[in-house]
């Protein structure tokens, strides 16, 4: 996992006559957490999230250090609510200080082979200032795909690689570039072997992930007999949803999707596929 040190200050900017108090909370892939300081601010009082190793002095108030956030990379949402009966609107200022967030979080990366062709699909969880993605096949860059713009919920991208030979296995990875030209090489790997007649599915199936155990990424192959809405989700052993790898209509065929567990703790996880009344679940082990 990656550690990030940062603080967030939420500051009401309305006049002193306003009866306004901040109520906020944060949420990541593990769920919501209510650790703003003060937890219940007074009227027009600032609220902080101090994910650093040093206390912060805000006027006469000391904001204790919570320690750096140790469960990255992840998407963290900040929710702000005004518990205010008299005045309905008050401008606020939110100030972030600390480590720069990642420009992109990659949720899944899959490769589907057919006759003389490999179709690539990748889904992001969030994007900020992403200029483009570079597709790397067997260690060599083969194409660039432009980013689709900033998004708190991410985008879906596709690319068709037609310059492949049947019977040969290809290995694909992704590199993202931000608007300043900085590059991030992502851990997810997708493999595919095009062949004549490949992609014809005779049954629904969910295969065991490979490798297993894994660290930090693995691949999951699944088969769709007839076109339908496919969902493929990862859960913790206590039933909490960790992430959604696939949630879209798929044509009949054989698919492979990558899963990156960099932001998760070691342990046993479950993944479940549902499509057209078919449902299957397998276990996988993340061992760091």
Overall description:
The chain has strands at 2-4, 6-12, 22-28, 31-33, 47-51, 56-58, 61-63, 69-72, 77-82, 92-98, 104-114, 117-127, 130-137, 140-146, 156-161, 170-178, 183-185, 190-192, 205-206, 217-224, 228-236, 241-250, 253-260, 267-275, 278-286. 26% of the residues are buried. It is built from no helices and 25 strands. It folds into two domains: 2-98, no CATH class; 104-130 and 149-171 and 184-286, Macroglobulin (MG2) domain (Immunoglobulin-like). Helix content is 0%, strand content 56%. With 288 residues, the chain is mainly beta. Strands 13, 14, 16, 17 and 18 form a five-stranded antiparallel sheet that branches.
């Amino acid at each position: 996992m990656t550690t990030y040190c940062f603080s967030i200050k939420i500051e009401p900017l309305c006049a002193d006559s306003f009866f306004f108090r901040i109520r906020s909370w944060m949420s990541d892939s593990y769920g919501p957490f209510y650790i703003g300081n003060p937890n219940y601010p007074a009227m027009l009082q600032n609220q902080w999230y101090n994910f650093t190793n040093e206390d912060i002095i805000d006027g006469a108030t000391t904001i204790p250090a919570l320690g750096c956030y140790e469960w990255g990379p992840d998407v963290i949402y900040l929710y702000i609510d005004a518990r205010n009966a008299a005045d309905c609107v008050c401008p606020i200022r939110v100030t972030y200080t600390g480590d720069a967030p990642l420009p992109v979080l990659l949720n899944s990366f899959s490769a589907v082979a057919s006759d003389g062709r490999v179709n690539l699909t990748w889904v992001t969880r969030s994007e900020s200032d992403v200029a483009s993605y570079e597709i790397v096949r067997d260690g060599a860059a083969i194409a660039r795909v432009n980013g689709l713009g900033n998004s708190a919920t991410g985008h879906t991208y596709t690319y068709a690689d037609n310059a492949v030979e049947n019977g040969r296995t290809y290995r694909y990875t992704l590199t993202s570039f931000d608007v300043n030209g900085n590059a991030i090489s992502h851990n997810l790997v997708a493999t595919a072997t095009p062949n004549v007649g490949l992609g014809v599915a005779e049954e629904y199936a969910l295969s065991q992930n490979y490798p297993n155990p894994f660290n930090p990424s693995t691949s999951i192959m699944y088969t769709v007999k007839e076109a339908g809405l496919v969902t493929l989700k990862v859960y913790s052993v206590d039933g909490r949803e960790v992430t959604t790898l696939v949630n879209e209509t798929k044509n009949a065929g054989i698919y492979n999707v990558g899963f990156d567990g960099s932001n998760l703790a070691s342990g046993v996880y479950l993944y479940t596929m549902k499509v057209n009344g078919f449902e299957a679940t397998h276990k996988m082990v993340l061992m760091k």
